Structure formats: C-alpha cells, structure tokens
C-alpha cells in the first residue's frame, strides 16, 4: 500500500483517482508547521503540494521512503529540486493545467490597471463618486512587452493581439519562427523593457531571473509604463518598484505574487497605484481540477513503476523513443554493472560508445541507465534520477559517443571505465532470440549472457590452469554452467569467465587465487 501525503488544498475531483486506488492510502494534512511536516513525511511514498508547502532539503532527507514529490501547478521553487535529485526523488509538476487561468488572470489585472477598477470600486462603495480621478487608458494600440514567452506568456500574447495590442517579447529561447507564428516582435530584454506601455513577466524564478527587473531596468522604461507580475515574487525587485512608483516613473503595478508570501505590511500596499491579488493566477475551478488530475495520475504512475512524463528532474522520454530503447535497457544496465564489478579504484571517467542501429537513436536515456549500473556498485542510493548528478558531484567525467565500427553486430554498445588504477571495458549487443550478450571484456572476445553468478579470472595462458580451476570448484561442490576463455597470444595474458550455479565465498576465491599463473579472481553477481 502506497502512502500519499497531501499537504496543500487540492481539488477533490482532481484527486479522485488517488482516492479510489486500492493500492493507495491518501493522507490529507494541510497547514502543517515545518516541524509537523518533518514527522509526517517519514513513512510516505509520495508528497503532493501546491505552492504553500516548503519542501526543503531537511524534509526530503527525512522522507526515507519518499519516491516522488508532485506539484499541482507549474513553479517548483517551493521544492528543493537539487536535494530531491540527490536523494533520487522524482519531482513532477503539472505544467499545462493552469496556463489559461493564469493568462486570463494576468489579462484581468492588465485591464484593471488600465481602468483603475479596484481603486474605483473601493472609492464608490465608500460613497464617493470620483469620475475624473479614475480616467484610464485603452489597451488598443498599446505595446505589451512580455518577458518569458512560455506557455502563459504565449497565451497572454494571443489575448493581447485580440485587443489589438502590439506584442513585443523577450525570451532567450524564442526563435524568429515562433515569434512570427505568434505574431509578436522578438526583442532583447532591454528593448522589450524600453518599448512596453505594459510590461508583464512570465519567467520561472531562478538565479538568473531574481530581480530581473530592478532599478536599472526601471530607468529604461517609458515614463508612465505599467508593470505586472503574475509569475513569481522576486522577478521584480519590490524595493526598486516602490522607488519607481513613488518617483512617478511607473504609473501602476499589478501583483499577484510577492517576494514573501503571504506579504505582511508591505510598503507597496500603501500606494494607490498598486493593485494586488493573493496568488490567484491558478485559482479557478478548472485549473485546480486540471492540475490535481494531472499530478495525481503522474504520481500513481511513478509509484506503480509505469512510464510517466513531466518530471522536472528527469528528462521526459517520448513514448515512441521509450518503445525503441526498451529492448536495450537490460543490456546497458548489465554492461554498466559488469564493468563496475571488474574494475578497481576510484572512478575517473566513463565512456559509452554506440554503434550500429542503436547509434541512430536518442541514446541519452541509455547512458543514464549505464551510469546507474556503474555507480550503484560503488555508491548506495543511486538511481536513474540522481546518477548524472552524483557523477558530476564526484568529478567523474562522462563521455557519450557514436561510432561507425559495429564489428559485424547489428548494434554494439561499449562501456569503458577509467579509474585511478587502470581501465576496464565491456561490449555488448542484442542477439536475435537470445537477448543481451556481452561480446567483449577488456578487449577479449566472449559470448556471455549477463545474468547470475560469475567468476572472472585473469591469468597467464598455461596448460593445466583450466583443469585446476575446475577441480577446485568441484571440491567446493560448485557446478560450472558455462566457461569462456580468451587470450591475447599463446602463453600470453588470458581471461576465464565462468557461469556458476551458486554464489561462492571468499575462501574459494582465495584458494583459486593461489593457483599458479592466476593473477586475479573476481566474483560477480549480475
Ligand atoms: N500566479 C500563479 O498562480 C501562477 C500560475 C501558474 C504559473 N505561474 C508562474 O508563471 C511562470 C510561467 O509559467 P509557464 O507555465 O508559462 O512556464 P513556461 O516554462 O512555459 O515558460 C517560462 C518561460 O520563461 C522563459 N525564461 C526563462 N528564463 C528567462 C529569462 N531569464 N528571461 C526571459 N525569459 C526566460 C523560458 O524560456 C520559458 O519560455 C512560472 O514562474 C510559474 O510558476 C504562476
Ligand atoms: O497552487 C497555486 O495555486 C499556484 C500555482 C502557480 O503558482 C504555479 O506555479 O503553478
């Protein structure tokens, strides 16, 4: 039974699938203090949040069984994604479900800003009738500068165009082709800032976007520009915004999000030209249902080990690619484990080479699997999610390359590992009807099914060595299923690879090691 902890309010309809799943126990505990969360997380398999719950590194470390954190929404800035990655916890979001709602909210804020609707409402219900004070401006023919033309930015652009606004956009990933398709003018950040009558930010909050709009940017704006933030508090420097409003450089600001939420006694609240909402962008019945459905379905898939998408800390693999690479998964994982088990010394570099049919595919997911195979022999708690990050942290260089040398195999994958002591390699292929095979070990040709108990013996090619190995194994009642031998030259360096029917202990290993001309005996388990 999987335990799923939900710590923020989520739509009941949205989480129906979880509530009805027979293999899931849903625990709903909202408004937890950080201390209570540290206790609640201890034995759950999944955590579902919106933007209120702060999922810190401490929370993740306490979640000993935690496999997945689901964010019902887009922004994952309330989750320590790096800590999750390091602990091998998948972070999922629901990126599509609230796009329309947030774009509509931004548009509502823009119209409110242009026509002073919140201020006029407040004044009118207080018994005033100040028609002259609340003269607004039209959106028609004004320029809207959008910073961050992703899902919400693009949706906002469409709405603005319907209101006959000129749309200028800055996004580092915006191509001319997409700009043209959306009917927006591609600009640099400073061009966009300088041209906008309205400027709306729609980026994630990252190191690069924190205070993206600060004093310098405000000085570049048109006099009387109006600014909106319905993305994340902190993209606009609130102190700089306050100064720009007080100086009259900026005519108005609409904020749905704040550097600290909920904001207390915010100086901006004292300014008449500032309109605010309490992080309501995604707060519609439709958006909340959408994101809760999306994230519940995805979390269930992770728990049930089915294919999932939308992982923030794992590249998503399209279904057609998943289908193509599936047959290679066992081979590459076994190749990684094999090389790791025959290698000695601290890892420095792992080179993976793809040749033949497989070289025509997107191989990054396979390399990730190999990394997991290699690293999990040396380190505990390595999985598909954290393997690249762990390699990076330990300074292990990863090289992925493609080659035209398939040596007669339809496909050939080779893993070469360099350690501080030596280098080791294994090559493998998929044989029609036989599945995964290891075809070369440290340069010696073999034909090995990579499963079960194995003995890897490095020795000098001498008459009688094979016999002595067989006799010793017989003495210890260990049955040999298959045996492979390979040598460089007659009497030269050689290897023996034996499939044995049961695990052996170190006594037999040491006895084998004492045999004349045997240099090294390694016990493998695949
Ligand atoms: N107010 C709310 O309730 C609410 C609701 C949903 C989303 N959001 C927030 O809105 C933001 C956008 O969401 P989205 O779904 O459109 O995300 P998205 O990932 O589709 O779009 C973000 C865009 O920002 C661009 N970007 C990144 N760094 C940039 C930079 N330095 N300068 C300019 N552009 C940059 C990216 O290239 C991307 O195109 C996120 O911060 C999200 O958390 C807020
Ligand atoms: O949970 C919410 O309502 C906010 C969601 C929003 O900020 C998001 O990033 O998706």
TrEMBL record:
Can you state which reaction this protein catalyses? (2R)-3-phosphoglycerate + NAD(+) = 3-phosphooxypyruvate + NADH + H(+); (R)-2-hydroxyglutarate + NAD(+) = 2-oxoglutarate + NADH + H(+)
Q: Which Gene3D superfamilies match?
A: 3.30.70.260, D-3-phosphoglycerate dehydrogenase, domain 3, NAD(P)-binding Rossmann-like Domain
Any one GO molecular-function label of the UniProt entry: phosphoglycerate dehydrogenase activity
Instruction: Tell me yes or no: is Acyltransferase among this UniProt entry's keywords.
Output: no
Q: Does the keyword Transcription regulation apply?
A: no
A family per Pfam: 2-Hacid_dh
Lineage, top-rank taxon, reads Bacteria
**Matching InterPro entries:** ACT-like_dom_sf, ACT_dom, ASB_dom_sf, D-2-hydroxyacid_DH, D-isomer_2_OHA_DH_cat_dom, D-isomer_DH_CS, D-isomer_DH_NAD-bd, NAD(P)-bd_dom_sf
Enzyme Commission number(s) from the entry: 1.1.1.95
- Which pathway does it take part in? Amino-acid biosynthesis; L-serine biosynthesis; L-serine from 3-phospho-D-glycerate: step 1/3
Q: Which UniProt keywords apply?
A: Amino-acid biosynthesis, NAD, Oxidoreductase, Serine biosynthesis
Tell me the ranges covered by the ACT domain, including all copies. 454-526
Q: Which SUPFAM superfamilies match?
A: ACT-like, Formate/glycerate dehydrogenase catalytic domain-like, NAD(P)-binding Rossmann-fold domains, Serine metabolism enzymes domain
List, in alphabetical order, the GO biological process terms annotated in this UniProt record: L-serine biosynthetic process
**Functional description taken from the UniProt entry:** Catalyzes the reversible oxidation of 3-phospho-D-glycerate to 3-phosphonooxypyruvate, the first step of the phosphorylated L-serine biosynthesis pathway. Also catalyzes the reversible oxidation of 2-hydroxyglutarate to 2-oxoglutarate.
The record ties this protein, via NCBIfam families, to: PGDH
The family this protein is said to belong to: Belongs to the D-isomer specific 2-hydroxyacid dehydrogenase family.
* Cross-referenced PANTHER family: D-ISOMER SPECIFIC 2-HYDROXYACID DEHYDROGENASE FAMILY PROTEIN (AFU_ORTHOLOGUE AFUA_6G10090) (PTHR42789)
Under what name is this protein listed? D-3-phosphoglycerate dehydrogenase
């Amino acid at each position: 039974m999987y335990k799923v902890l939900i710590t923020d309010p989520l739509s009941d309809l949205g989480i129906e699938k979880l509530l009805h799943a027979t293999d899931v126990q849903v625990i709903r505990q909202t408004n937890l203090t950080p201390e209570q969360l540290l206790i609640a997380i201890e034995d759950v398999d999944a955590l579902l949040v919106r933007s209120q719950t702060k999922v810190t590194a401490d929370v993740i470390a306490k979640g000993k069984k935690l496999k997945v954190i689901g964010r019902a929404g887009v922004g994952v800035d309330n989750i320590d994604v790096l800590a999750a990655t390091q602990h091998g916890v998948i972070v999922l979001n629901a990126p599509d479900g609230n796009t329309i709602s947030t774009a509509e909210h931004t548009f509502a804020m823009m119209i409110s800003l242009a026509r002073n609707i919140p201020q006029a409402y407040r004044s009118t219900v207080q018994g005033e009738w100040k028609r002259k004070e609340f003269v607004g401006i039209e959106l028609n023919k004004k320029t809207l500068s959008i910073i961050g033309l992703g899902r919400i930015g693009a949706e906002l652009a469409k709405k603005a165009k319907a209101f006959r606004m000129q749309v200028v956009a800055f996004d580092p990933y915006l191509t001319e082709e997409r700009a043209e398709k959306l009917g927006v003018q591609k600009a640099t950040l400073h061009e966009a800032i300088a041209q906008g009558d309205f400027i709306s930010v729609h980026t994630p909050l990252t190191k690069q976007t924190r205070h993206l709009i600060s004093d310098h940017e405000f000085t570049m704006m048109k006099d009387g520009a109006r600014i909106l933030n319905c993305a994340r508090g902190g993209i606009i420097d609130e102190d700089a915004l306050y100064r720009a409003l007080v100086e009259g450089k900026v005519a108005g600001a609409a904020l749905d999000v704040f550097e600290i939420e909920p904001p207390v006694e915010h100086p901006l609240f004292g300014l008449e030209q500032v309109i605010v909402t309490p992080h309501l962008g995604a707060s519609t019945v439709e958006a909340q249902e959408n994101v809760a459905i999306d994230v519940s379905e995805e979390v269930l898939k992770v728990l049930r080990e089915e294919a999932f998408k939308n992982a923030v800390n794992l590249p998503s693999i399209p279904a057609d690619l998943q289908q193509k690479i599936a047959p290679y998964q066992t081979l590459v994982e076994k190749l990684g484990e094999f090389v790791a088990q025959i290698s000695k010394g601290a890892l420095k570099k792992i080179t993976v080479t793809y040749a033949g049919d497989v070289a025509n595919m997107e191989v990054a997911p396979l390399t990730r699997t190999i990394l997991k195979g290699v690293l999990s022999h040396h380190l505990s708690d390595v999985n598909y999610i954290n393997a690249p990050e762990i390699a990076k942290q330990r300074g292990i260089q990863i090289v992925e390359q493609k080659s035209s040398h398939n040596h007669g195999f339809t496909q050939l994958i080779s893993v070469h590992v360099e350690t501080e002591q030596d280098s080791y390699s294994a090559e493998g292929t998929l044989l029609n009807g036989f599945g995964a095979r290891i075809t070369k070990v440290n340069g010696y040709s073999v034909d090995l099914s990579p499963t079960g108990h194995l003995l890897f013996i490095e020795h000098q090619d001498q008459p009688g060595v094979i016999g002595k190995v067989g006799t010793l194994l017989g003495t210890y009642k260990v049955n040999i299923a298959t045996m492979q031998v390979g040598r460089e030259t007659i009497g030269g360096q050689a290897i023996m690879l034996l499939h044995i029917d049961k695990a052996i202990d170190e006594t037999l290993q040491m006895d084998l090691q004492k045999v004349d001309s045997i240099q090294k005996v390694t016990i493998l388990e695949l």
